[in-house]
Amino acid sequence: MQQAGEGQGISVRQIEELFHAKYETLCMIAVRYVDELELAKDLVQEFFVYVWNKRDQIQLKSSFEAYAVRSVKNICITHIKRQRDLIIYQGGELPEIAFDPDGTINDERLKAKIYSKLTEALNKLPAERKKLFLMSNVQGLTYAEIAERNNISVNTVKTQIKKAYATLRSQLSENLLIGILLSV
C-alpha cells in the first residue's frame, strides 16, 4: 500500500486499496470497542465517508493504514462518549430491561460477561492482594478480622484492598463499565 507524501492529500487509489485490504480488520478493531458488529461496520463506514469527503485536505504524517486504525479507534471512543453522555443527560439511568426493580441485572448474557471480565481482572492481581480483596468482598470480613487471620496490620489490609480496587477500576472502567452501559 502506498504512503502519501508530506503535503499531499489521500488519493482515491489509496482509499480503495485500504478499503479492500483492511475493511474487515478495521471492523474487528471497532467491535472490540462497541461490541456489536453492525455498529462497528457503521463506524468504519463513517471513517471511509469522512476520508472520501476530506481526501484532499488530510495530511498524513504516517502510513494511511496507521491513520485508519487510529481514526477508527477515535471514532469508536467518540461514539461511546456520546452514548454515555446521552444516558447521563436522560437522567443517568440505564434502560429498564437491564435491571430488575431491586437493582440486580436480569440479563444472563450480560451477567456472564461481567463475571468473566471481573474474574479475568481479579486473576491479574498479585495472589496475596487477591486473597485479601476476596476475604473482604466475598466473605464479608472486616479489615481487623482479615488482619488477624493473616497476621498483618490493619493498615496493610487497607492498603492492599485499596490497591486492588484501583487496579480493578483501571482495568474494568473503560472496557467493562462503558461496555455495560452500551450493551444493554
From TrEMBL:
<comment type="similarity">
    <text>Belongs to the sigma-70 factor family. ECF subfamily.</text>
</comment>
<feature type="domain" description="RNA polymerase sigma-70 region 2">
    <location>
        <begin position="23"/>
        <end position="84"/>
    </location>
</feature>
<dbReference type="InterPro" id="IPR013324">
    <property type="entry name" value="RNA_pol_sigma_r3/r4-like"/>
</dbReference>
<dbReference type="GO" id="GO:0006352">
    <property type="term" value="P:DNA-templated transcription initiation"/>
</dbReference>
<dbReference type="InterPro" id="IPR007627">
    <property type="entry name" value="RNA_pol_sigma70_r2"/>
</dbReference>
<dbReference type="GO" id="GO:0003677">
    <property type="term" value="F:DNA binding"/>
</dbReference>
<keyword id="KW-0805">Transcription regulation</keyword>
<dbReference type="InterPro" id="IPR039425">
    <property type="entry name" value="RNA_pol_sigma-70-like"/>
</dbReference>
<dbReference type="InterPro" id="IPR014327">
    <property type="entry name" value="RNA_pol_sigma70_bacteroid"/>
</dbReference>
<keyword id="KW-0731">Sigma factor</keyword>
<dbReference type="Pfam" id="PF04542">
    <property type="entry name" value="Sigma70_r2"/>
</dbReference>
<feature type="domain" description="RNA polymerase sigma factor 70 region 4 type 2">
    <location>
        <begin position="117"/>
        <end position="168"/>
    </location>
</feature>
<dbReference type="InterPro" id="IPR014284">
    <property type="entry name" value="RNA_pol_sigma-70_dom"/>
</dbReference>
<dbReference type="InterPro" id="IPR013249">
    <property type="entry name" value="RNA_pol_sigma70_r4_t2"/>
</dbReference>
<dbReference type="Pfam" id="PF08281">
    <property type="entry name" value="Sigma70_r4_2"/>
</dbReference>
<dbReference type="InterPro" id="IPR036388">
    <property type="entry name" value="WH-like_DNA-bd_sf"/>
</dbReference>
<protein>
    <submittedName>
        <fullName>RNA polymerase sigma-70 factor, Bacteroides expansion family 1</fullName>
    </submittedName>
</protein>
<dbReference type="GO" id="GO:0016987">
    <property type="term" value="F:sigma factor activity"/>
</dbReference>
<keyword id="KW-0804">Transcription</keyword>
<dbReference type="InterPro" id="IPR013325">
    <property type="entry name" value="RNA_pol_sigma_r2"/>
</dbReference>
